[in-house]
Structures are given as C-alpha cells and as structure tokens.
Write a structure and sequence with these properties.
With about 425 residues, the chain is an alpha+beta fold. It has 3 domains: about 1-60 and about 195-230, no CATH class; about 90-185, Beta Complex (paz domain), CATH 2.170.260; about 290-425, Response regulator (Rossmann fold, 3-Layer(aba) Sandwich). The protein contains 12 helices and 21 strands. The strands form 6 sheets. Strands 1, 2, 3, 4 and 5 form a 5-stranded antiparallel beta sheet that branches. Helix 7 links the parallel strand 17 (about 295-300) and strand 18. The model has no long low-confidence stretch (mean pLDDT about 85).
Length: about 425
C-alpha cells in the first residue's frame, strides 16, 4: 500500500515491501517515501527523484492512539487530544451487515468517518444520554452505553473513556452530535500529520531522516524507482518513453576551506569545524569585539527541579565565571545585576498556552528589573519549543530586548567550549 501527499510524494506503508518506518512517540511514526517530478533539460527530459520523510498517525485503535499521545486526565490534555485527532479518518465494524432484502449477512458492516470532536471533558458512554424512539413511537432516554448494548449487542470494555463525534454538519446545534465510543474506532493507515512535532519527536525524526548522501542515493535507485513505478516501467514504453535507471553524474571538486582571520592568528577549519580557544588563537581573539554594556539575567524554572541547581548563589557564580570568560575574549561586558526569576507553569507549556507563558515571563521581568534590560541572558529549563517561541516573540517583537537563550544544565557546567559558543553569538 502506498499513500500520496502533495500529489508527488509517495510513502509505502503497511505490508509494502519497500516500507521503512520509525516510531516518533506520542502517536506518530515516520515513514520514508519518495518525491518525484519531471523537469526539462537541455535536449532531454529529466526525472527528479529524491527521498522524502513524513510523520504519520499510527493506525489501529483510536483509544490507544489517544492514550499514547498523552491521555485525557485533565482539561488541558483533553483540549490537546481534540486538536490531535481533529479530522482524523477512522473506521468502525460493529454494525450488523444486511443484504438488499434486509437479511443478515456474515461479518460486520464497515463504515468510515472522520473525527469532528471528542465528548466534553468528563463525559463518556455511561453519562451521555439521548432520546431514542422505538418502533412503536415511544421515546426513552438512554445512555450511549445502553444503546450500543441494546441495539448492536456491544458490551463496552472501556465505557469510562471519551466518545467520538463524527457529525461534520455545519452549522450545528447541541443535538447534532453523533457519538461513538472511542474503543470502537480504528484509525485508518497512511494519514499524514501536519502538526508541529514535539522536541523529542523532532529528535527522533532527524535520527531517521538525516542520512549520508550515499545511503539516499542507494534508496533512490533501489526502493525509489520501485515506489514511483519507474522501474520496472509501467505504461511508459507504450508512449516510446524509457527512463535511464542510473543516477545522473556530474563532475565535482572539493573547495579548500577559507582561512579565518582572528586578531593575532589565522585559523584553518578542519572538516568544517574549529575550536575557538585562546590558547590556539591568542588572547582576545575577536578583531572587533562589541561593547556589550550592562546585561541582565533571567532564570526560568518549570517542573519539579530548579533550572540552576544551587539557586541564587550558583547563578551568581556562573555569571561571574561567564563575565571573566567574555573579558578574556575582549568583549568587555558591563556589570550585571541580581538575576530575575520566572516560574512558568509546566501545564501551560504542555497546553501550548502562549498567552499565559508570555504573561508570566513579562511579569517576572517587570518585578525583577528596574527598567528595560540592555541585554538579557536567559537560562532555560529545557528545549521546550513553546517556551522558546514565547521568549523570542516577547523579547524580539514586543519589547525590543536583545537576548540569548542558554540551557541551564549546559551553562551550569561552566565549560569553556560552551562559553565560547555563547561568546560567538554575542
């Protein structure tokens, strides 16, 4: 089986012999696919094939998918779960199958729907009721659990789990919802996720997608030609078209790395890297160091542990060491004052509540600093994308404060190599 996205990207999945996948966590998996297009060249037509990687929802039980995503244990997780499964296609097979004459057939009837929303937080098959009209016209109020037991003979195993509303009718009223217990819903395979990946998912995706060119070339001439149906050709020969299955080769050369000129000594990178070390480059290596002036520090805590173990005293020690390091590089930093502290709610980060996160940070800056900081050094508790984006939006576009973010766990080690990387940013 192959799924297609953007009309020219093809991803094998399921039991396809060319299927390659890796678990990303939180309900997603990465699939390796192939991009294909036709380009005009000089006196020829070129077929362009490249490796593509996409994040897809895991097929199977929708209940398991939601639980793997993070579950629904509070209102915040409930909101995130709704965003995660919105418009997701699923199938059910609990209904009795009948022929055109109404006779019961073997097997169950398969129906395909898409998720409109989930039941409100705390609502499930045991406490969600609706009016049911029987064959005699009598109306009774039944729960979703009772209905599926009476109508379809389904004994729910997880009646306390949420319900799925598949009615996409608009505009809607409160009576337009059509509920199915989530345990009876099964996610169809091959559905691309367009959500922003979580930090750990991004790391897992890079581990899967980032490969040396040689391995990508092998994939293109091997699986790529099979997936895009170019080798063996299917239908092209009827039009007198034949595709060369060998990669196009061009002449190349390796350019010598440029020499970096520091204040006293030059430096030639090796394999695209070099060490910014005063022992090799001489003291104060920057040719034109900037006058930093006074700078302030903001420590952001979130979760059960402090970003800087040791609190205020350890933070002041790190700042003193960092200032001395900058002076050795000729950057001439000014004095730094007492660091400000912001305690960001971990739930606000998980719920991507940017407004609350930004408000917390801004209030901490107003309380901790007498005026607008000239420069702000920020110690982060983690690589959380919501926190980083909130800081950059607040400082860069709203308040106009120059800033650099550092991981608290890394700068706490007072490593010269890490200090040097931050000094290059400054």
């Amino acid at each position: 089986m192959i799924t297609t996205t953007a009309q020219n990207k093809f991803y094998p999945y399921g039991n396809h012999p060319q299927m390659e996948a890796q678990d990303l966590g939180a309900g997603l998996r990465a699939l390796r696919g192939y991009f294909s297009s036709v380009r005009t060249g000089v006196n020829r037509i070129l077929v362009n094939i490249n490796v593509a990687t996409g994040a897809f929802f895991k097929e199977g039980s929708l209940l398991n998918l939601v639980n793997e995503f993070g579950g629904i244990n509070n209102a915040g997780q409930h909101r995130e779960a709704i965003k995660f499964v919105k418009k997701l296609n699923f199938e059910t097979n609990y209904m009795t199958s009948r022929d055109t004459k109404g006779k019961v057939k073997a097997g169950k009837k398969r129906k395909v729907h898409s998720v409109y929303t989930l039941s409100p937080f705390g609502k499930n098959a045991t406490n969600t009721k609706f009016d049911l009209v029987d064959a005699n016209g009598k109306t009774t109020s039944v729960t979703v659990q009772q209905y599926f037991q009476q109508q379809w003979g389904v004994q729910l195993r997880s009646p306390q789990s949420c319900l799925v509303d598949y009615n996409n009718k608009t505009p809607r009223t409160s009576k337009d919802s059509k509920w199915i217990p989530i345990e009876l819903c099964f996610v169809l395979p091959g559905q691309l996720s367009k959500r922003m990946l979580k930090p750990q998912q991004t790391s897992n995706m890079l581990d899967f997608a980032a490969r040396r060119p040689y391995y990508n070339a092998e994939s293109i001439v091997g699986n790529g030609l099979q997936v895009t149906k170019i080798n063996p050709g299917t239908g092209l020969t009827a039009f007198g078209i034949q595709v060369d299955t060998k990669l196009l080769t061009v002449n190349g050369r390796i350019l010598a790395p440029p020499t970096l000129q520091y204040r006293l000594k030059p430096c030639t990178p090796a394999n695209g890297a070099w060490n910014l070390d005063t022992r090799a480059l001489g003291p104060a290596p920057f040719p034109r160091p900037g006058l930093l002036g006074a700078f302030s520090c903001l420590v952001i805590n979130s979760g059960p542990y402090d970003t800087i173990r040791g609190g205020f005293e350890e933070t002041m020690h790190i700042l003193k060491e960092f200032k001395q390091f900058l002076e050795s590089y000729g950057l001439k930093p000014g004095d730094f004052g007492k660091p400000a502290l912001a305690n960001v709610n971990d739930g606000d980060l998980k719920n991507a509540d940017y407004v609350k996160v930004q408000a917390t940070i801004e209030q901490a800056m107003k309380t901790g600093f007498k005026g607008k900081p000239n420069f702000l050094l920020i110690f982060l508790p983690s690589a959380d994308a919501v926190l980083y984006d909130s800081i950059k939006y607040l400082c860069d576009t709203q308040l106009g404060i120059r800033n650099i973010c550092c991981h608290g766990s890394k700068i706490s080690k007072t490593s010269p190599q890490y200090f040097a990387n931050v000094a290059m940013k400054l």
